[in-house]
Design goal:
Length: 134
């Protein structure tokens, strides 16, 4: 079985030691927030800062509670349905927001982002290819 891959988006990302960062839009309840997030194919879920959830008008602790294991311990998060958009590709997704302010980076993980997409990365060229999975 062979698979032909074609991509709608080609993005040259900055070469940074802290990973691949891309622009995102989050929409909920009429609010739209621009942010940036790290591509993290090892992360189970999408995790965003508490501050972004508040800007969207979400009552963070009214979401689906989910403690997340991290390298430094447990991160308490709450899931909310939002529209997540990257490079014009938008879909409804459950995004988890940190319970407490100060999360230093937002993550695009498997559930909520990657499973909606076809993704290829050529890191030597700092190039990301993306299309909506159909």
């Amino acid at each position: 079985m062979s698979t032909d891959l074609s991509f709608a988006v080609t993005y040259q990302y900055p070469d940074r030691p802290d990973g691949i960062t891309i622009p995102v839009l989050l929409r909920a309840g009429g609010e739209v927030i621009q942010a940036s997030a790290k591509v993290d194919t090892g992360s189970e879920c999408c995790i965003f800062s508490q501050e972004l959830g508040v800007k969207l008008g979400l009552e963070i602790e009214r979401g689906l509670y989910k403690p997340m294991g991290s390298l430094t311990g447990t991160l308490e998060t709450y899931g909310h349905e939002v529209i997540l958009q990257t490079f014009g590709i938008a879909f409804e997704s459950t995004i988890y927001f940190a319970k407490y302010p100060g999360l230093r980076r937002n993550l695009l993980g498997r559930d909520g982002w990657l499973r909606h997409l076809q993704l290829a990365i050529i890191d030597y060229e700092n190039t990301l290819y993306l299309s909506q999975y159909s």
